Amino acid sequence: MLNPRESVRNLPTYHPPLAGRTGLRLDFNENTVGCSPRVLARLRSIDFEELARYPEREPVEAAVAGHLGTEPGELLLTNGVDEAIHLLSETYLEAGDEALLVVPTFSMYEIFAAATGARVIKIPAGEDFSFPVADILRQITPATRLIAIANPNNPTGSVATVEDLLRVAESAPDAALLVDEAYYEFHGESLRSRWREHPSLFVARTFSKAYGLAGLRVGLLMGDAHQMSAVRRVASPYNVNAVALACLPEALADEPYVRQYVLEVCRGRERLECELKSLGIPFWPSRANFVLMRLGSLNSAFIGRMRERGILVRDRSRDPGCEGCVRITLGSAEQTDRLSGVLRETLHEIGALRQEVQR
What we know:
Blueprint: H1 6-9, E1 24-25, H2 37-45, H3 48-52, H4 58-68, E2 75-78, H5 80-92, E3 98-103, H6 108-115, E4 119-124, H7 133-139, E5 144-150, H8 162-171, E6 176-180, E7 201-206, E8 219-223, H9 225-234, H10 242-253, H11 255-279, E9 283-284, E10 290-294, H12 299-308, E11 311-312, E12 314-315, E13 325-329, H13 333-350
Parallel strand pairs: 1-11, 3-4, 3-5, 5-6, 6-7
Antiparallel strand pairs: 2-8, 7-8, 9-10, 10-13, 12-13
Helix pairs in contact: 2-10, 4-10, 5-6, 5-9, 11-13, 12-13
């Protein structure tokens, strides 16, 4: 009887709760107002010939590289950041190798690394989810071949400094260091181009968050040109579909649209954090487009009542160190106004404002 590899049989599963998502989507860190009108116009102009041809990725990669100030050979467009993680795992990991992760973090790092047969070593985040750079350095061995770090991190919104990330790169020159900058636009700090000093460094970005293209599944991986040539060997030449390739240049061209959305999200993030502080609800300062707060045993009631009021938020209780935690995505100013009113009302209704919530 045909059986999958043991490493595949033992993989953890990731089942995002996508069913029944009716209401204001503050649960998946998506763009809550949608993509640029220029993207929609380009979608309407796509004809049968564009869909009948195999997609040509390289011209769009050159345009994206020019937009980001990198060389085309340093950049690969991918089917979301998920594919970038998969490609790095397939390029550098073998059975018996080690992959280091700081937890809690994005689940797909573990899934793709473990599928290769590599040993996944989970390093708990520090106090208040701080970046445990000393613990990471202690765990690096000759078997370490991949280190994956989300910066800002999901689901916590915490960040590592550029200096700490470069310390990791310097200490593990034989390991691929992936710095996943999916939430870069809401943070503003990047390791872009630092692979020219540290060839083992890779930086990933997505167009699912600030740009509102989650449904088109397009991201990118950047790194040293020599290393990227190896990663390209693993990638399909048609990994990004024609519709995504047609729309991406229009999304990049409408910078004012993206800047305005990011500005509203960052203002909303500050406003939500101030409100939670005034209400005495424990939370962690965030540099992403969401805030993680802790309600303890009241989190399920909160999520249910918010859904009843037409607002979706995400339960993160299963993540390490996140028991009783809820993550709330920020959107436009108008949406933050709506969230603010419903939030206080719901917290009062479930009794969260009449008792201390243990952090």
